[in-house]
Amino acid sequence: MRSVVTIKLKIPQKKEILETMERYSEVVSFIADKGFKSGIVNRYELHNLFYHKTREKFCIPSQFVINANRVASQTLKSVKTNKSGKPVFKKCLPLPFDKRTFTFSFDKVRLTTVKGRIDVPIEIPEYYWKYLDWSPQTAQVIKSGRGLFIHITFSRNIDIPCSNGKTIGIDVGINHIAVTSERKFFNGNKVKNHRLKFKRLRTKLQAKGTQSSKRLLRKISGQEKRFKSWVNHNISKQIVNTCEAGDTIIMENLKGIRRNKGRKFNFWLHGWNFYQLQTFINYKAVRKGIRTVKVNPYLTSQACSKCGKLGTRSKGFFVCSHCGYSLNSDLNASYNLAKRDSMPDHVSAAVNQPHIPDDDSKAHPVNCG
Ligand SMILES: [Zn+2]
């Protein structure tokens, strides 16, 4: 299994880098403009038509043109789908680097720029040292109000031992952000309040419509995004901390989940990044040698985790129509997940004995923050 990590470092604002960023942004803008006028959005068509013209006009290394072409094509596609007008780009777009355009060593990175290769000193904080024997893959230079940053991704192959430990299921849901089959509840209440606060502020600012309110709106949306990802980091950390190497974590494949959980969940699915939560769980687990499996969530919410027959859900509770078993509905779903096989579309084919304690009365809600 491959594990990937991104480290973020501040770098000096060298004029060669800034110049390259600006030139690169001009290239993206140029290709997008050409594509927009001619109605071409396909990356390869754009490349064939404009690659040589762009290189001549902008004198920029080919790798940047290829990347600019990709970004332009993506933007044009979304413009086409959303039927919005001609795309406008920032003056300094994030500048991507790969193995051909950057090399990494402990105290510096060597970056290709429009002025040739330059060495940029870096200082790696101690908490990143553990990744230094991983292999550097790509990098991105980003300009923000706080300066210039380089984000470098490192990857490593990790051997996951044969599954010989416990298996837990994790259900993501409306009433709780996540519930594990070990009866850990990650509460969404505090998060809900935060979201409502953000929503009220957003509505107010949108109604105003002034320049400064728009600026504030952008700032708030960034804050909201960071808040959500902080919560997701927090929950995933707590979940992974309950497992050891050799254990298995079973999660639902979020594709097709819409039909399964209903309209109320869809609202939350759009508002909450469950996919990000699963991604965080996955990468934290992989690093610890824990296997993660995504399964088809078909009937995990509707079936009884004791007898497998269908039941009903009301106000966060599941009641089995057959055996009368009743419990928190998210917990019931997590029990069902813990029993699932890794094969999609197979219902209740157990791989391992799921780790489900007998006494449900010991369930303790865990507040995520
Ligand atoms: Zn039952």
Jot down its keywords.
single chain; 369 residues; alpha+beta; 3 domains; 6-stranded mixed β-sheet; 4-stranded antiparallel β-sheet; 9 helices; 16 strands; 24% strand; disordered C terminus; binds zinc ion
Provide structural commentary.
By secondary structure, the chain is an alpha+beta fold. The chain is 41% helix and 24% strand. It is built from nine helices and 16 strands. The strands form four sheets. The protein has a six-stranded mixed β-sheet. Bound molecules: zinc ion. Zinc ion binds next to loops.
Write the layout of secondary structure elements.
Layout: E1 2-11, H1 15-38, H2 43-58, H3 62-82, E2 95-97, E3 102-105, E4 108-113, E5 116-121, E6 135-144, E7 147-157, E8 167-172, E9 176-180, E10 184-187, H4 189-208, H5 211-241, E11 248-252, H6 257-261, H7 263-271, H8 274-288, E12 291-295, E13 311-314, E14 317-320, E15 326-328, H9 329-338, E16 364-366
Parallel strand pairs: 8-11, 10-16, 11-12
Antiparallel strand pairs: 1-7, 2-6, 3-4, 4-5, 6-7, 8-9, 9-10, 13-14, 14-15
Helix pairs in contact: 1-2, 1-3, 2-3, 4-5, 5-8
The chain binds zinc ion.
Zinc ion binds at residues 304, 306-307, 309, 320, 322-323, 325.
In brief, what are we looking at here?
This protein has nine helices and 16 strands. With 369 residues, the protein is an alpha+beta fold.
Describe the biggest sheet?
Answer: 6 strands, mixed
Query: Strand-residue fraction?
Result: 15-25%
Unreliable stretches covering 5 or more consecutive residues: 342-369
Strand order of the largest sheet: 12-11-8-9-10-16
Order of helices and strands: EHHHEEEEEEEEEHHEHHHEEEEHE
User: Would you report the number of β strands?
Assistant: 16
Ions, cofactors, ligands: which are bound? zinc ion
Oligomer: single chain
Helix content: 40-55%
Question: What shape does the CA trace take?
Answer: globular
Q: Quick check: average pLDDT?
A: 83
Number of helices: 9
What distance lies between the first and last C-alpha atoms, to the nearest angstrom? 31 Å
Rg over CA atoms: 24 Å
Total domain modules: 3
